[in-house]
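Quick one, tokens below. Sequence please?
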């Protein structure tokens, strides 16, 4: 880790999935176990989510590898691979199997190239458990692997689609439901208590973390409208909601400039990326 911390291991969820697929990116995504007290040196092993076994000497679990934990590792805001996974999903929803497959394969190929593994991409795509099979699950599972460097994006995808299938962490405090939103930090509660009391109320710890946030919907007609039939209507609805959220933030955090600035920055980053994704969708449906 660039931070110098030695107590943060990678999760077995992604390590085991990539090993099962014989994914060559394992060697650059992860650092093998370096200690040998338990005879595990050289193996790629992840820690089960929720397990708090001590491993400061790196005898049990792998850490983030050279691709993303090196001092020279790039900070990727939006990769070509991510763009093509977005396109693959859109084409799939539009029932354009040929274009979905082309975008899916391009995404994986581009990610391998970015990691210096171009010579391995063809064999990986030939793997029966990797080759495009016409399902959204296959697209999203491979996108999840590729987006290891941007786990927040994978969390967004999982919350709106449900892939890959995940198991709640052991010893969780949310009744075995994976979190779907984040808690308000104490600084917001302490500095904005009057408005919280007058509005939604003081958040109760753990309660509500499994609730869907406002932009997650099971409404298939919305998705059909957004991805397939009337793109611009879908975008207009979503952008209007984004604007409403910004105005709410301005009103809600007006008395706390620091908090508002932080929330506004997060919103601007998210909005900027969402806008770029909309441009991708627009160009696809124009073609």
């Amino acid at each position: 880790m660039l931070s110098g911390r030695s107590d943060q291991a990678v999760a077995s969820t992604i390590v085991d999935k990539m090993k099962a697929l014989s994914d060559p990116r394992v060697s650059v995504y992860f650092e093998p176990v370096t200690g040998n007290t338990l005879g595990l040196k050289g193996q790629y092993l992840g820690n089960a989510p929720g397990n708090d076994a001590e491993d400061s000497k790196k005898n049990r679990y792998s850490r983030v590898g050279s691709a993303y934990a090196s001092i020279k590792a790039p900070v990727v805001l939006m990769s070509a691979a991510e763009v093509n996974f977005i396109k693959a999903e859109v084409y799939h929803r539009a029932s354009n199997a040929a274009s979905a497959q082309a975008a899916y394969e391009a995404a994986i190929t581009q990610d391998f190239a970015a990691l210096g593994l171009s010579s391995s991409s063809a064999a990986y795509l030939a793997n029966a458990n990797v080759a495009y099979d016409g399902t959204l699950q296959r697209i999203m599972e491979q996108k999840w692997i590729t987006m290891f460097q941007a786990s927040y994006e994978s969390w967004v995808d999982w919350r709106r689609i449900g892939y890959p299938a995940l198991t709640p962490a052991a010893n969780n405090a949310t009744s075995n439901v994976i979190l779907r939103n984040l808690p308000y930090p104490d600084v917001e509660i302490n500095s904005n208590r009057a408005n919280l009391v007058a509005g939604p109320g003081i958040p109760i710890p753990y309660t509500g973390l499994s609730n869907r946030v406002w932009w997650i919907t099971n409404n298939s007609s919305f998705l059909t409208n957004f991805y397939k039939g009337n793109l611009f209507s879908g975008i207009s609805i979503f952008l209007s909601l984004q604007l409403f959220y910004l105005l709410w933030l301005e009103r809600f955090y007006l008395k706390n400039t620091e908090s508002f600035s932080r929330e506004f920055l997060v919103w601007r980053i998210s909005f900027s990326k969402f806008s770029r994704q909309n441009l991708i969708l627009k160009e696809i449906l124009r073609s």
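The chain has 13 helices and two strands. Residues 228-235, 249-269 have pLDDT under 50 and may be disordered.
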